[in-house]
Amino acid sequence: METGSVQIYYGAGCGKTDAALGNALIAASENKNVIIIQFLKGKTGDHIQFMQRLEPEIRFFCFEKSEGFYEELTQEEQEEEKLNMKNGLNFAKKVLVTGECNLLILDEILGVIDTGIISAEELKNVLDCKTEDTEIIMTGRCLNESIRAMADRIYNISSEK
C-alpha cells in the first residue's frame, strides 16, 4: 500500500470487503493501526464478534443498531439508521483529524452515497481531513463519478462465473 493514498474497491462482484480486509491484515502485520467502519450491512453478530478478536491491531466499528440490512428495514427504522451512519461518518472524520490510524477502511461507504444518506460532498469533506500518513480504502457496488476523482487507485471487482 502506498502511504497516504485513497483506494476504491467497487463493482457488482463479491470480494470488495475481502480485499479491503486483506489490506487491513497486511497493515496490522506491519505494526500499523487499522480502523474499519462498516456501513449498510447491519449488526451481524458473528461477523462483528470475530472482527473484535483482532483488536487492538484492527479496530472494527459498526454504528448501525439494526440486525437487518438497511434496504430490508421499515421507513422508520431506516431513518434511525441514517442518523447512526452519519455518526459513523463523523467518527471517521474524527479519526482522520486526530491521526488515530494508518489505515481507515470505510466498508460500503459508496452505498451510503447511492442510497442518498450522505452526499459525495460530505464524503469529500471527510477525506479532506486525511493526513499524508493515512491510507483510506472505500468499498461499495457503484462508483459515483465525483468520488472517482478523489481516488488514487480504483479496482473494479466483477464476477465472471
Radius of gyration: 15 Å
Q: Architecture, according to CATH?
A: 3-Layer(aba) Sandwich
Globally, the shape reads: globular
Number of strands: 6
Spatial order of strands in the largest sheet: 3-2-4-5-1-6
Folded structure, characterized:
- With 161 residues, this protein is an alpha/beta fold.
- It has a single domain (6-156), classed as 3-Layer(aba) Sandwich (Rossmann fold), CATH 3.40.50.
- 40% of the residues lie in helices and 19% in strands.
- It has six helices and six strands; from the N terminus they run E-H-E-H-E-H-E-H-H-E-H-E.
- It has a six-stranded parallel sheet, with helices on both faces.
- Strand 2, helix 2 (45-52) and strand 3 (58-62) form a beta-alpha-beta unit.
- Helix 3 packs parallel to helix 5.
Summarize the structure.
With 161 residues, the chain is of the alpha/beta class. 40% of the residues lie in helices and 19% in strands.
Write the layout of secondary structure elements.
Blueprint: E1 6-10, H1 16-29, E2 34-38, H2 45-52, E3 58-62, H3 75-98, E4 103-107, H4 109-114, H5 120-127, E5 135-140, H6 145-148, E6 153-156
Parallel strand pairs: 1-5, 1-6, 2-3, 2-4, 4-5
Tags for this entry?
161 residues; alpha/beta; Rossmann fold; six-stranded parallel β-sheet; 6 strands; 19% strand; globular
